[in-house]
Amino acid sequence: MNDPTSLPYRPAAAIMLLNSENRVWVGQRRDSTLEAWQMPQGGLDEGEEPEAGALRELQEETGIASHLVEIIARSRQELLYDLPADLVGKLWKGRYRGQRQHWFLGRFLGTDTDVHLDTAEPEFRAWRWVAAEELPHLIVPFKRTLYESILAEFRPLFP
């Protein structure tokens, strides 16, 4: 891999999903041996609007249908993260240096029985609701700053 800074960021969308107790949904990735948890997120399809992409990714990763989510807010700007050097050439066919994500805050209107990790292409092996303040400590280190940023922006929006 040459200079990773010459690569673009992958367009993506993500969602911080709150339950009725203002706890945040996190999933543990199947493809990692780390004790890393993350909120639903993924790449946008060509021409896809970010909110539609966030809801699509949520359904693909958690089984939660979009009609069970009320969007409360959208981040003021896209948030970026860079992959560690050892992952740049391995993920996304080596085409991107990281992601530029549109973030959404959503309210989950369903129940825990609406969560189904056994999707067509399962990404998570476990899931749970956590206190928002736990988020930066649960994510892989290279996404920690992004999680701190989105938490700072969205935390005042829920009690």
Description:
It contains four helices and eight strands; from the N terminus they run ββββαββαββαα. The chain is an alpha+beta fold. The protein has one domain (4-157): Nucleoside Triphosphate Pyrophosphohydrolase, CATH 3.90.79.10. Strands 1, 4, 5, 6 and 7 form a five-stranded mixed β-sheet that branches. The protein has a three-stranded antiparallel β-sheet with strand order 3-2-8, with no helix packed on it. The chain is globular and about 45 Å long. The mean pLDDT is 93.
Provide the fold topology.
Elements: E1 9-18, E2 24-29, E3 37-38, E4 41-43, H1 50-62, E5 69-74, E6 79-82, H2 85-88, E7 98-108, E8 124-130, H3 135-138, H4 144-154
Parallel strand pairs: 1-7
Antiparallel strand pairs: 1-4, 2-3, 2-8, 5-7, 6-7
Q: What brief labels describe this structure?
A:
159 residues; Nucleoside Triphosphate Pyrophosphohydrolase; five-stranded mixed beta sheet; three-stranded antiparallel beta sheet; 4 helices; globular
Determine the CATH topology. Answer: Nucleoside Triphosphate Pyrophosphohydrolase
Overall pLDDT confidence: 93
Quickly count the domains.
1
* DSSP strand content: 25-35%
